[in-house]
Amino acid sequence: MFSILRLLFSSQAMNWFRYPCLAFMMFIPSSLIGILIPRFFWKSFPTSQDIIALKTSQEELCEEARFWGGFGYYALFTMAYILAGLSGGFLTFTMAASMLLAWFCFRVSARVSGLLSVRSAMYYLIPLIPCLIYSAYFGGFLVQFLIEKMGMMGSLPPPYGFFVPDIIVAAVIGIVTGICMGPLVPICGHWLARTSILTFLLHITVLALALSSQFFPYSSEAPKRVVFQHTLVTSGVGKIMESTYDFSVVDSNSLHFVFKNSREVAKKLDLVPDLYLDTVKLSEQKNWLALFPVNFLFSNSLKFPSSSEDIVKDYQHLPSLSTFKLQALSNDGSRRVHLELDLGSLKEVWVTVLNITGPLSSWSFAENILPAPETMNNGPPSYILRLSGSGSENWRFWLEANSSETLRVEVAVLDQHLVDDAEKLKSLFPSWVDVIAYSSFISTYTF
């Protein structure tokens, strides 16, 4: 709730990405409020046991019920891990075992000092210290790892995608805070669930939310990742049909945020002074085929027109796909198409991706076994093949169709070489942006 509230008044998400301590400052106090609120409003509760018959006070029964409830919570988690065959139950098992030792020390001290004394609470706390320290270490490492991965989780569609990373980080910190504080609440909650403490935690949360909004989310050590693709759509016979600069991001801060804080790039793309992106064309997911399957992380990508003159100068031959042998027809009506892929004069080929649509029944890769079909942009199911690098000879392979229906093959070749204009545009990005830049040659064939 607090993470959503902050973003309603902020134009940028993930302010904690550069400084993870901001996430702890914002969400640990609010998590403690959530943990203590039930204890604050439910200071005592009726029990089903006869107090007179047991000669036990209401306070003693309530403390015992809270403890065994907390112990049973962690014990059930441990049992669930074991029954599921997982190996992560050591943490909840350690917490449950430590709580038993702490409960024994608490009961011994309570006979002398009373249930609600500070001394009894300290006797309960001290045996838990090793377990709590390990839980804090494990939880802190988990949150730090999660924050790092939030920078490349993908750009989810607006408007809800803007909130998702902050919600995930807030929820995980809440879970970690619950793990670290959970064993203390049954006994020490009496001392913690006070109006003054809850008010103090609320003030700290509001102050942290306001303070974090003033920090810029990125730096050269924690960069914003931007994918810059020089897209060249060719006719398959060496003619360039379209040349564009395509941009995408892999976290919740959109391209508008990037261009707003990269004025030289915006000026180069003729976006200043208004930075109005509504008229800019969207780059379809199929244009990012060369990055499959990473292209599924992209949404709301943009493309800008570019010149193809440097491409003609740098490349004498463009990639092409052609048949090198007559089609072979079988008795059952299937046909086999023999193809040859020529990568042309590309300089630093990293990968070639083929997207095959149609009645494909077999191919000459992976022991003639087809993978599960993929669906892009709600289109028909297709089969995607990745060929790594380049060789001294052209790629030769065959595709088999089980009918006379046309096979459609889209070819996307990723070349890590950039022409001069694209290289200059890349150099205009500030140091807090990590630009993944390359050229992509896209062509379509039917057989």
UniProtKB/TrEMBL annotation:
Record keywords, A-Z: Membrane, Transmembrane, Transmembrane helix
Transmembrane segments: 16-37, 90-110, 122-147, 167-185, 197-216
Signal sequence annotation: none
Keyword Transmembrane helix among UniProt keywords: yes
Domain Endoplasmic reticulum metallopeptidase 1-like C-terminal: 222-445
This protein's record includes keyword Calcium: no
Recorded family membership: Belongs to the peptidase M28 family.
Name this polypeptide is given: Endoplasmic reticulum metallopeptidase 1-like C-terminal domain-containing protein
Native organism: Kalanchoe fedtschenkoi (Lavender scallops)
